Amino acid sequence: MQSFTNTVNGRQVHSASSFESRNPATGEAIGLVPRSTRQEVAAAVAAAKAAQPAWAALPDETRRELLHKVADVIKENADYLSQWVTREQGKPLGGVGPGNVPGSRFELWGCETWTRVPASLELPVEVAFEDNSRRDEVHRRPFGVVAAIAPWNWPLLIAIWQMIPSLRAGNTVVLKPSEYTSICSLELVRLIAQVLPAGVLNTVSGDGEVGAALVDNPAVDKIMFTGSGATGAKIAATAARHLTPTTMELGGNDAAIVLDDADPKQIAIGLFWGAFINMGQTCAAIKRLYVPESRHDAIVAELKVLAEGMPMGDGMQAETVVGPIQNAMQFRKVTELVEQARQGGATIVCGGEAPQGPGNFYPLTLVTDIADGASLVDQEQFGPVLPIIKYRSVDDAVRSANGLDVGLGASVWSPDVQKAKSVAARLQAGTVWINQHGMVHPMVPFGGSKKSGWGVEFGAEGLKAVTQPQVISIPK
């Protein structure tokens, strides 16, 4: 079985111990991942710390050119990396670009795109104030060393979201990938680090103890984390001890509200992929669907046809459209939530029973006759299950959508865009989409409200978030 390595100071580094990474579609072990020690974590941070001044001192145009070379490497190795994503994360290979099945090839297309956009952005000096007596300029300076902790659902794309803007702004990075999807992440960094100066981009790998050692290192100057609220709270507590700034994307339980003038046939495919992209294992996916009584049965019928017609299987097979749940822990959570709903009197419209055989496969599942207060509605299921809740008035739907303590995304569905906008303005979420859901863009700020986290990524605002302002005040 192949053993993989971390990248530290431009070298490939093994550890004394390792652990197996497994294919969620088959259960087979597919490679050995190094288990970083606390000393190895410290060495990675030290390498990043030593490399940072020279990296930041490069002309801005030079860093941007190097990041375009990184994008070239991603493009050249997209097929290789997408196969590792499918084998390790489970999503199908799918197509390339936003109009195709959103699988691993789509993820690698996104990695290239989200690398080229920050590399193309200007980070100009801003004049905050000027009169006859003074001129005050705002310059953007890097933090230093950024610790990036990426999740298992979009392992490469979210890592790119964390790493590339940080590098663009003159920071150096230590990436800690999820222990469930380490190989694809370590291979991505191994490849792209070859066109960067040694120490600028480094990795460590292992379980939560490795992540804890990384964020507890006092030489880390900024933490970027995407993951669960429980882990985010632990990281925030550690960061507070060191007064380390953080950007947190802690997931959500996104609500979609269908208005009573929506056409079920026209919106069904958008609702379907809004909920079931990546088997529902997406932070900004529809997790609760609120529909008016007059549209309920028709929408359920349309979604049922789509759910039952999507081929499920090993993502390496060309005909596969949806794959497995990534890990056994998440599989158990999804199964338990559906069983609780069933025991509580909900109707399982389709799915709801895991097939026999290897792999973490769970069918696309629609659940009706369920309401706020049920665990499947109130907890983020993060899997291929969608509760569909009837509402009587838009006020009731808005109240339900806002009733939880998270607010990453939400959506409103109606042919009347102005009417939809008026409802959207009432929703407590970082992003509210109209007649679409989860459609992030590299130029549009993205972040959560309430307990879905703080800070933003993407675009000019995301680039500023990995810098600290310095005011230079000049008398005249």
From TrEMBL:
Assigned keywords, A-Z: Oxidoreductase
Region: Disordered, residue numbers: 1-24
Domain spans labelled Aldehyde dehydrogenase: 17-471
GO molecular function: 4-(hydroxymethyl)benzenesulfonate dehydrogenase activity; oxidoreductase activity, acting on the aldehyde or oxo group of donors, NAD or NADP as acceptor
Pfam families in UniProt: Aldedh
Active-site residues (renumbered): E249
EC number annotated for this UniProt entry: 1.1.1.257
Catalytic activity reported: 4-(hydroxymethyl)benzenesulfonate + NAD(+) = 4-formylbenzenesulfonate + NADH + H(+)
Record has Amino-acid biosynthesis as a keyword: no
Quaternary organization: Homodimer.
Family as reported in the entry's similarity comment: Belongs to the aldehyde dehydrogenase family.
Record function comment: Involved in the toluene-4-sulfonate degradation pathway. Does not discriminate between the sulfonate and the carboxyl substituents and can also be involved in the p-toluenecarboxylate degradation pathway.
Record-given protein name: 4-(hydroxymethyl)benzenesulfonate dehydrogenase
Organism taxonomic ancestry: Bacteria, Pseudomonadati, Pseudomonadota, Betaproteobacteria, Burkholderiales
